[in-house]
Amino acid sequence: MSTNLGEVPLRGRVAELSVVRASLNTLRTGGGSVVIVRGPAGVGRSRLLAEARRRAHTRGIRALAGSADPQYRAVPLAPIVEALLMGPDPVVGAEALPAALFSDADQRFLLVQAIRQQLEQVALQAPLLLTLDDLQWADPTTLLALRSLPSRLAQRPVLWMLAVRDGIGSDALHTTLNRLEDDGARTLDLQPLEASSVAAIARDVLGHDVDESVMQLAGSAAARPLLLVELLRGIAEHSAHTADSGVAPLDGRLPDRFRDLVSRRVARLPDGVRRTVQIAAVVGPRFTVRQLGCLLGEPASALLEPLRAAIAEDLIVAHPDDFAFRHDLVREAVVANLPADLVRGLRRQVVDADLRTGRPLPEAAALLAAVALPGDTEAVSLLRQAASMVAASDPTAAADLSVRALELTPPRAAEWADLVTETVQLLLRAGRAAPAAALAEQALEIPLGPRAEARVRLGNALVGLQFAFADAVRHCRIALELPQLPPSLRADLLAVLSLATALDGDPEAAGEVIGQAMTSARESGNARAEALTVCVGSIVDFHRTDWRTALAGADMAAALTKRVEVPQRLCEPEVWRVLALAGVGRLDEALAVADQHQAGVGVGLSLGRLWSATRSRLLLDAGRPAEARAAAETALSAVDELGHGDFAAVTAITTLGRVAVLTGDEQALAAAERDAHKMQASRSASVRSAGAWLAALIADSGGDPGRAMAVLAEGASRFDDAGPWSGSPLDLADVPWFVRVALRAGHRDRAERAAAAAGRRAEANPDVPLFVAAHAHARGLLLQDGEELVRAASLFEAGQRPLARASALEDAGHVAAGRDREEAVRLFETAMRVNDEAGAQRDAARVRSALRELGVHRRRCTRPGTGQGWQALTASELEVVRLIAQGATNRAAAERLYVSPHTVSTHLKHAFTKLGVTSRLELARIALTRTQ
Question: What's the predicted TM-score (pTM) here?
């Protein structure tokens, strides 16, 4: 019988195909799911994905395929874009994903959002299967997308099948897979084939039953069906007698026999073809004629015949833009048969050739990092440049490149200390605090000169800002005592010292350092040190309640920071400026700035995460907990590794905990309590404080004010300061809460100290409603003064804090209940309405209980802001939805309703959140269904 050189039927995957069948059936019911396919090279991951696509086609399900490639790890979302745009059946046109989102590295966060919208629109038309292969090579932006897209599209008929090769992959990949599994993804670990399946494949390939010797050889490849097929084809080509001696078990490497088979197969090729195949294998799984020409020193025309011959031999396949090996295992075998030094040298030439012919440095950097040898100063310089180029949009990749550059640099090199500090900064920017700390600490174990030691201690100080402010102060002071420091380095150290001193709770000492730091920064022309120093001055001014000077300083720091390259920056003052605006009650302005940064130019992946976390807190303050929760979840979905002092993660976790308290979500409360305990164990004082405050909120929500006060024993002393310092409490509106809980727990002295501190802030800022409101609320609680509490509610409304207003109204209702029932009912009902509109179900339920005690029964509102569905829409939102569904633009709807376009946009945004849609098309479909 003849040998089968075509596609071999899929054998031995009955259980896996059952999962595929069930997942495809689920698409018909409108739900999505994720299936992860894992296994070693050659086990049949790609084959299973292909079978899934074939079965999807027979069911009328649209199937798309993409694959990651190690050479294109610098290309954002490469496998997803390949699936959407470059297959035989593209689902979107190139115009749907603006080129600017690809060319501008700062807009990758927006690119993920654009792809989500496109997938939603496609899934509305028909069920969709999206297979992504070889994710061990995926670029970081793809991994970011996979952490959020499947969950965001869970209610759409989208099946994700993701294939990953075992034993390879970054920490970010493992984090992504773990997160998907936590969210319900099904994992298929492909196992070795059973003997019956091996025999069936042998018959498929050879065309007849095989004897025991061939089965013994075939059985050794049962763990890798692709390898099995290649071995059997080798047997067919070279005769069955090679099976007599058997082969070594597969232990993650290519069997010698298979290498020999591939070697003999390649050796039979003509010299020119053999040389072309060997050089192509060295380049990588995919290669271009230009790359081969540079390495072989031949024009493209001279390579046409060798490539045609390799294609005819079924070794290589042609694609529209490049070529690839039919099986990567064959390519690996070709490379394994070449001397290692030759392979490394050729790959180094590939990098040089790529750069000469215009390939972007970040794209060539991954291969350069793999092949460069210690002492290659040119490679170190190129890797540092590449890290700087991608730092804004892809801090994880930048950190990896910088780590590799450091590995290639001997400690005696002049640039070693600078490179240590650069790497520490990039690791911290990537959220990898633990490796940054280990590197900074280990670097000090090496004997260093004064300047090098100072640079390394600066890196340790930056780590200290994540772990323990006292450590940062210590390292800066030691470094500043070293002789002959360059002025610019001294300015950096003084600037970081000022920040660490401020965060460690000593504003006056920080003020003294700020003067020295500013002088040093300006004399040395160090813009980044000056920007940080101005930002620290703003923080100190704010906590001294001089908010006008604080905001002016934040503006100046933001302007100075724009002059500094992203990887060199020591701070992001715009985030502080927004928080300061919200802190003085200018919440609408703060949200507008945050929205602009979230969606505008200059927002890379790390900053996108930071702004999502910041917005989550602002949205919560604005009484929009549903949107706050969504923003916080977005921020956490982009975290690769949570450092002890990661501002974005801590802010997002705290927001989720506060939303859980407001809504009474027991599952979310339990998760928040676990997070609070973890935060309380941090080495960072500010993180411990945030964890304690969250734990206290949860304890009080459970009816245990005594435990809440015990948790806050350390932080309560901060109320004696004008600050309160170091972010405790996290919000001025928390002061009345603290007073109320302290009074219930029998700690009137602590309540009085907190109210007195609030009074000092209000006295210093009589024109800031939020400061005055916090004091009036605290004073009203202490004195049980209903008029003060009503005044506080009015001031909170002026300060744009609806939930704080509802709290003051509720307290005023309790004071009025004993003497004026009608007034108490009026106050309680207003508080209940505000809480209901915001979606604060637990607070609203508590107020309803107070009304029942007065003989008034009110049903639960059906329009909570955290609710979902049509019934959650307010009257104003319904008017906007109906006009937009009829085709009106925002401006046209605004004219019809006599409101501003901004108001229409806000109502539309709220409606999108409540209805779980992201496009006007979906909105129109839902509105039409409701009308019918």
Answer: 0.64
The pLDDT, as a whole number, for residue 505 is 65
In the three-class reduction of DSSP (H, G, I as helix; E, B as strand; rest coil), residue 218 is classed as: helix
> In whole angstroms, what is the distance from residue 306 CA to residue 295 CA?
15
Do residues 732 and 542 touch, judged by C-beta distance below 8 A? no
Q: Could you tell me the pLDDT band of residue 258, with boundaries at 50, 70 and 90? A: low
Backbone φ, ψ for residue 189 (5° rounding): -95, 105
For the chain, helix (H) and strand (E) counts, in that order, are 47, 8
Return d(Cα 3, Cα 729) in angstroms, integer.
76
Handedness of CA 843, 845, 851, 852 (dihedral sign): negative
The 3-state DSSP class for residue 903 equals: helix
> How many whole angstroms separate alpha carbon 69 and alpha carbon 136?
9
645 and 466 Cβ atoms separated by less than 8 Å: yes
How much is the average pLDDT of 761-789? 92
What is the rounded average pLDDT of the residues 758-766?
Answer: 89
User: How many Å is the Cα radius of gyration of the chain?
Assistant: 32
> What is the C-alpha separation between 663 and 82, in angstroms, rounded?
42
pLDDT value at residue 337: 87
- For the stretch 435-463, pLDDT in tens is 888 999 999 998 889 999 999 999 999 88
Using the 8-state DSSP alphabet, how is residue 854 labeled?
A: T
| 869, two tokens | 């569905």
What is the DSSP secondary-structure string of 392-416? TT-HHHHHHHHHHHHHTS-TTSTTH
What is the rounded distance in angstroms from the CA atom of residue 586 to the CA atom of residue 898? 25
**What confidence score (pLDDT) does residue 725 get?**
37
DSSP string, 715-774: HHGGGGSSS-GGGSSSSTTHHHHHHHHHHHTT-HHHHHHHHHHHHHHHHH-TT-HHHHHH
CB 221 within 8 A of CB 231: yes
Query: Hey, what amino acid is at 573?
Result: P
Confidence of residue 5 (pLDDT cuts 50, 70, 90): very low
Residues paired with residue 528 on neighbouring β-strands, in sequence order: none
Max Cα-Cα span within the chain: 104
User: Cα separation of 632 and 192, whole Å?
Assistant: 42
Residue 379 pLDDT more than 90? yes
User: Bridge partners of 66?
Assistant: 132
More confident residue, 200 or 441: 441
Is 756 exposed, middle or buried (CB count within 10 Å of its CB: 0-12, 13-18, 19+)? middle
Separation between Cα atoms, residue 555 and residue 304, nearest integer Å: 61
Residue type, 854: L
DSSP state of 92: S
840, 814 contact by CB (below 8 A): no
Residue 806: predicted pLDDT: 94
CA dist., res. 696 & res. 705, Å (int): 8
Give the phi and the psi of residue 837 in degrees, each rounded to 5: -65, -30
Output the CA torsion sign for 494, 499, 502, 504. Answer: negative
Rounded to 5°, angle at Cα 558 from 556 and 564: 115
Closest to 300 (Cα-Cα) out of 276, 267, 324: 276
Judged by DSSP in three states, 189 sits in strand
Interatomic CA distance for residues 118 and 140, integer angstroms: 20
| Best CA proximity match to 786, nearest among 807, 808, 758, 760 | 808
Q: How many Cβ atoms are within 10 Å of 22's Cβ, its own excluded?
A: 12
Amino acid at 57: H
825-864 burial, b if ≥16 CB within 10 A, otherwise e?
bebbbbbbbbbbbbbbbebbebbbebbeeeeeebeebeeb
pLDDT for 643 equals 43
Q: Residue 855: which H helix or E strand, with range?
A: none
Do residues 334 and 266 make contact, with C-beta atoms less than 8 angstroms apart? yes
Among 172, 165, 166, which Cα is nearest to 132's?
165
| pLDDT at site 357 | 79
Q: Name every residue whose Cβ is closer than 8 Å to that of residue 370 and which is 6 or more positions away in sequence.
A: 347
